[in-house]
Amino acid sequence: MNSGRRLLMSLYWHGSGSYRWWRQRRMISAGQAPISVLVFHRIADDRANDWTTPTRTFVKAIGWLKSRFELISLEEAQRRIRSGANLRPAVAITFDDGYAVNNQMALPLLIEQRIPCTYFVCTQPVVEGTPFTHDQALCHHLRPNSVQQLQDLARAGIEIGAHSRTHPDFGRITDPATLYDELVTARDELAEAVGQQIRYFAFPFGCPKNLTAEAFQLARAAGYAGVVSAYGGYNFPGGDAFHLQRRGAERSLSRLKNWTTFDPWHDRRIRRRLAGAEWQRLCPSRLLQSA
Hints:
With 291 residues, the protein is of the alpha/beta class. 47% of the residues lie in helices and 13% in strands. The chain contains 13 helices and 11 strands.
């Protein structure tokens, strides 16, 4: 994020923060405190790609979140959504892809501080030890986690999740066999390698255009406890507990603060965006009602 954009985000935070905290307190009183799900990818200081977060920024973010929110697992987030009530703003932390560098500082920090985390990994890079295709396209050969590292993380309390086999755009998959391999077979192979049940799935890219109704239906039929997207919205008590919306947390601390402190304007914008025909077609709640 450039300096001008960072300045605007900081001004927005300081200018609207008081009102948004007030709105959030009212939601707490009504038992409707929002649940935010954040996604990181890679924590390092080399700026190898746009989804790499500097270690200093990550440490500050975790400290800020701990001081203001309850940090919970995806399972606990689902429980509160299903219960219809949440009395304290909460945040769930997730990671996507599975970069080995995360084992140097980020994941040990979460483990030491007993902060729940779901770590979504692509099966092929982990099993074969090959770089991610989206990094190869940038001429970067960044090392993925090894199977041994994932086994160690699972034993330490990190929940391992599935993130497909090859990180495809699910919105472009039309072959049922390919869809099943990326969503189900890859999960089963990862579970066998790690020695842990895989309960959650993160859609690569994760925007409405990157998903299909068939993918949502297959995920439920395959026994996943839930799926996560990158739709960018908040998760509210009484809402859809199977599909949890997330937002990227990589770019800056001010952006993270702006989103996790309930932003009614952002919430309204996301709701309008998802109110169209594309959202109606993909909405998991509708799919489950018609199943």
